[in-house]
Amino acid sequence: MRRSIPTAIMATLALPLALGACSQEPREGDSAEDFAERIGDSAPGEQAGPAPQMTTAAAPTADAEGNPYAEGKWFVTEDAQSARAMFGPPQSEPRLTLACDQGSKSMEVIRAGAADAAGDYTISVGGQRAGLRLAPAGAELPRVSGSLPASHPIFAALAKAGQSATISGPGGDSLYVPGSAAIRRVLTACGVST
């Protein structure tokens, strides 16, 4: 006498296998062509195209004129009294800092460098330009700083990704940095809408 598995049990066991074959997820070891063919991404007899790849664009390393950006990226810190956008290499002193003074609604521009680099500076972003006198600041690390109203259009322009800023000082000393949407957080903390 032969024992047979009831049809209902057989169907229950076969269902997960059938559903697994219809999966829209790549299987381990699937090539792009195998996956595309399995999910019916191309007509029979047609060559399946490569599966889409997620990529991130490389960060730009120079402005539109080819001037190399300073090494680093933008970091933002906030507390109850202020917000700061700092540009520089991770875990080092920033090359450029934009610090909001919420009380005066001003933006302090702090540039790392020799204290004897004080003088008249120009910040250029796209078609915007701002003149600024930077004076020695800080005893521990050489730097210069000065302030502009946080509502100055130069900061809103710099808060746009894809923009480039040039900070030019005495003797043709220039610092090139990319714009960043992260600067909007500092402007918002200073009461400026962007």
Nearest-angstrom radius of gyration?
29 Å
Instruction: Please give the domain count.
Output: 2
Distance between the termini: 83 Å
- Coarse morphology: globular
How many strands, which pairing sense, and closed or not: the largest β-sheet? 9 strands, antiparallel
Strand % is: 25-35%
Helical content stands at 10-25%
Query: Which residues form runs of ≥5 with pLDDT under 50?
Result: 6-23, 34-52
Structural class: alpha+beta
If helices are DSSP runs of H or I spanning 4 or more residues, what is the number of helices?
Answer: 4
Oligomer: single chain
Classify the fold: give the CATH topology of the largest domain.
Immunoglobulin-like
Q: What's the number of extended β-strand segments? A: 9
Within the largest sheet, what's the order of strands? Answer: 1-2-3-4-7-6-5-8-9
CATH architecture of the largest domain: Sandwich
The ordered string of helix (H) and strand (E) elements is HHEEEEEEEHEEH
CATH class of the largest domain: Mainly Beta
Mean pLDDT: 77
Outline the fold blueprint.
Layout: H1 7-21, H2 32-38, E1 73-78, E2 82-88, E3 96-101, E4 106-112, E5 119-125, E6 128-137, E7 143-149, H3 153-158, E8 164-168, E9 174-178, H4 183-189
Antiparallel strand pairs: 1-2, 2-3, 3-4, 4-7, 5-6, 5-8, 6-7, 8-9
